[in-house]
Amino acid sequence: MLIIKNLHASVDGKPILKGVDLTINAGEVHAVMGPNGSGKSTLASVLSGRSEYEVTEGEVIFDGKNLLDMAPEERAWAGIFLAFQYPVEIPGVSVTNFLKAALNEKRKAKGLEPIAPNDFLALMKKNMALMEMDSTMTKRSLNEGFSGGEKKRNEIFQMLLLEPILGILDETDSGLDIDALKVVANGVNVMRSAKRSFLVITHYQRLLDYIVPDFIHVLSNGKIVKSGGKELALELEAKGYDWLKEATIS
Amino acid sequence: MELKTETLKDKILTDFAVWQQSLNGMSGLPFNAKRKAAMEQFEKIGFPNLKTEEWRHTNVAPVLAHSFKQIFAPTKTQVTKEVVASFIPDGLKANVLVFVNGFFAGELSSVISDTKKILITTLAEARTTHAELVNTYFAKHLNAESNSFILLNEAFTQDGVVLEIPENTTLNEPVYILNITETTSDNILTHPHNLIIAGKHSTVTVIENFHTIGDKLSFTNNITEIFIDELARVDYYKIQDQQEKEINIGTTQVAQQANSLFYAFTITTGASFTKNNLNSQLLGERAEAHFYGLYISANKQLIDNHTLIDHAVANCYSNEFYKGIIGNASHSVFNGRIIVRKDAQKTNAFQSNRNILLSDEATIFTKPQLEIFADDVKCTHGATIGQLDDEALFYLRARGLGEETAKSLLLKAFASDILEKIKITPLRHKLEEQITGRISFKN
């Protein structure tokens, strides 16, 4: 589904990703872990099309198409969803209106009619219950005045509605208490299927107790330095990242 | 350019002389003496230029370079009831008073409220039927001497609305003043002049709206004077939303007595050249003035909002909130003047002006102008100029909103702070729709 080959990317001329190779097949959950500054969030940003990041080398193929040629909205239409580490507050745009617009633009790109108002309401209601969201939340301005937990639940809520085929979770666990973390993880787990994949970016092993990955990769200094199964997370938790950094240098 | 400016001035002086000669016996009436005095003063001061304080950032020379015809008697109009209806927001129940080329068009107008107790008439009519009322209120607080356009209005005005709401009376339906200019064969200059007098503890809503029909230019030089007595409330809307053939220079002058409430909404999206002067004098204690404004300029439009809130006495409150979206090569000006006089202790005055520039060629000049002579007051002001938030734009696009849709959603959200304050639902809906159109048109 997603093939990343020798990906190099820079910000303001400073190289951050220095040759990332990663293949994610349909139905797989991959976790990317690594110390601060290793390039984890850059990887998420490049995949979602943030313009400040310049790809200097390599390619990314998503669902058979060259992802790097696509505008952010085209990537969303093709089925990529980025759950932001820091969801943006947008005053004056209600969650409901925004989601209806997003859903209908995606449907339009697929040649579908706009969703019927009743179907949309039912979809909202179902997923709000799943994310344990207050019914007033969707009437409020997008993320405005939301607590950290509300923002992250709102991200996963949007993902549930937009039904991507690849969900990228950028440090979704940061700033969450354990109850919110469970709700967020449950939202993701409900969506797991043979056709849908996830790329879970995290600094801590904690999230992976709830969203259990098929593969774990360690990113350090812009490269994947180690890959393994879910047991790698426990090893990292016990030993930290330093032994891997040294391993790459030597 | 200088030569052409003189040409319009000369033409206006000639127009006035010719018109006066045609008046014969009528020219000696008191009202006409005011016209002559205004014209004499205009002859002295002429038109403003970039050196005139109030016009330092708004170049009126391109407007004055055109020639305009003035009309001194009502003419047959092509405007139909259907055309009038198309200008009124769907579902709005209002008393619609239509003026065509500056003259009342009774056959196009409709008064639906019970008017047994209120006076709702025209200036042309009231000058004879209610001469004393007109004498008392006409130009009462206008600072005409140094203002060429007020002088021209006083000299030439033909008609307008005269509305008097007596004590303890509420007019439930708004009064919708529709100024239509027909410019099929000539550029037309008109000078509507309205008097709104709200008696003690009365309530009324007035909407002013402008439209041009025809390919030539229309220039509306309008004045609305509003007098709000104790405990009365006036809601006032000035909506300039038509195509870009209109030039509008207007002054709304408000005088507020104790415990009165004034809400103003100045919404400008159309017209090639607009100068909105909105002035309120707070003359009685605990009077409140709320000024809301939204301006959206595109192409080469110019929109200038000059406001003045004059706190003359103690314990009054004013709140001013203007927002602007400035696109393409357009230019906007906001000048918010607040005077707090020596006796106006315990004044609360708030002002905020926020702008979004959409292009490198767009310009905004914003200036808060506070003149405070009292020592126990609370005054705050703030002005911002920014661009669309890139982070917000990326967030929306990452969710699948196209770039244009995302931009227009953010701009609509920016404008919503002002629009959501509009309590007349059909009017708010119409404006929301139009503004959406303006914004997408710009991207």
Secondary structure layout:
The complex is a heterodimer of chains A (250) and B (443).
Chain A lengths: L1 E10 L2 E11 L4 E5 L6 H9 L4 E10 L2 E2 L5 H7 L1 E4 L6 E5 H15 L7 H14 L10 E2 L5 H15 L3 E5 L7 H14 L5 E6 L12 E6 L2 E6 L2 H9 L2 H8 L1
Parallel strand pairs in A: 3-10, 3-11, 6-9, 9-10
Antiparallel strand pairs in A: 1-2, 1-4, 4-5, 7-8, 11-12
Chain B lengths: L1 H22 L6 H16 L15 H4 L16 H7 L7 E6 L2 E2 L14 E4 H7 L1 H7 L10 H9 L4 E5 L9 E8 L5 E3 L2 E6 L4 E11 L4 E11 L4 E8 L5 E11 L4 E8 L4 E10 L5 E10 L4 E10 L5 E10 L4 E10 L7 E10 L5 E10 L5 E9 L3 H9 L4 H17 L5 H18 L1
Parallel strand pairs in B: 1-5, 4-7, 5-8, 6-9, 7-9, 8-10, 9-11, 10-12, 11-13, 12-14, 13-15, 14-16, 15-17, 16-18, 17-19, 18-20
Antiparallel strand pairs in B: 1-2, 3-4
Folded structure, characterized:
The complex is a heterodimer of chains A (250) and B (443). By secondary structure, chain A is an alpha/beta fold. Chain A has a single domain, classed as Rossmann fold, CATH 3.40.50.300. Chain A is built from eight helices and twelve strands. In chain A, the strands form three sheets. In chain A, strands 6-9-10-3-11-12 form a six-stranded mixed sheet, sandwiched between helices. Chain A has a four-stranded antiparallel sheet with strand order 2-1-4-5. The longest helix of chain A has 15 residues, at 95-109. Chain B is an alpha/beta fold and 443 residues long. Chain B folds into two domains: 2-284, no CATH class; 388-443, no CATH class. Helix content of chain B is 26%, strand content 37%. Chain B has helices spanning 2-23, 30-45, 61-64, 81-87, 123-129, 131-137, 148-156, 390-398, 403-419, 425-442, and strands spanning 95-100, 103-104, 119-122, 161-165, 175-182, 188-190, 193-198, 203-213, 218-228, 233-240, 246-256, 261-268, 273-282, 288-297, 302-311, 317-326, 331-340, 348-357, 363-372, 378-386. In chain B, the strands form two sheets. A ten-stranded mixed sheet of chain B has the order 2-1-5-8-10-12-14-16-18-20, covered by helices on one side. In chain B, strands 3, 4, 6, 7, 9, 11, 13, 15, 17 and 19 form a ten-stranded mixed sheet that branches. In chain B, strand 1 (95-100) and strand 2 form a beta hairpin. In chain B, helix 2 (30-45) runs antiparallel to helix 7, helix 5 (123-129) packs across helix 6 and helix 8 (390-398) packs across helix 9 (403-419). The longest helix of chain B has 22 residues, at 2-23. Chain B starts with a helix and ends with a helix. The mean pLDDT of chain B is 93. Classes of the chains: A alpha/beta (250), B alpha/beta (443).
